[in-house]
Write a structure and sequence with these properties.
Elements lengths: L2 H26 L6 H9 L9 H11 L2 H6 L2 H4 L7 H20 L10 H12 L6 E7 L5 E9 L9 H10 L4 E7 L9 H14 L5 E9 L2 E4 L7
Parallel strand pairs: 3-4
Antiparallel strand pairs: 1-2, 1-3, 4-5
Helix pairs in contact: 2-3, 6-7, 8-9
Amino acid sequence: MAKGLEDATNQASFLGHRERLRERFEIGGTDALPDYELLEMVLFRAIRRGDTKPIAKALIARFGSFAEVVSAEPERLMEVKGVGPAVATEIKLIQAAALRLSRGKVINRPLLSSWKAIIDYCHAAMAFAETESFRLLFVDKKNQLIADEVQQTGSVDHTPVYAREVIKRALELSASAIIMVHNHPSGDPTPSMPDIEMTKKVVAAGHPLGILIHDHIIIGRKGHVSFRNLQLI
């Protein structure tokens, strides 16, 4: 087969494949597509010509799932053959959009009515991170979430947290309560003794100033634990 004819045939093939994926998505939504095919569609914008299936499958094989791919750092994404800066940026854009949507469901919303959304947001933001980070969700006197901030980022198994800095930031925001959240990159959300001791210090620092620690949540890959539910607060 002449090269020109072969190229035209290949182009028609991947264009037809892309159209079929779009049709399945439009009819059945995300449930109609496995992880690698949804990822293929994400890559359409970054890879205008060519088959995105091999790259999508390679990414899923490397990281494990769609969620883990979009949560991976750009440098790690680009270790996969075929993934350059444009592809990595497109993937991280999907993560940013998902987090912005999830965050919009919790900020300035009543705490009790948005608890599941809070857990979902924290899981999306932190569950697949490769290093530990410490997030603070601040609650006002109307019991609404008013701010979401990452205070510290640490190593694979440790994040330094200073009680005075946590309470100082709550005072700056006029918050009356705090939800502390951190992730365990190991995947196991079981609290460690340092987690428990740090929580006690923050609770003690906030008490005389009228700042309540509503909960401390640890996020793992497949679940979470609540210090309040465990009666550790």
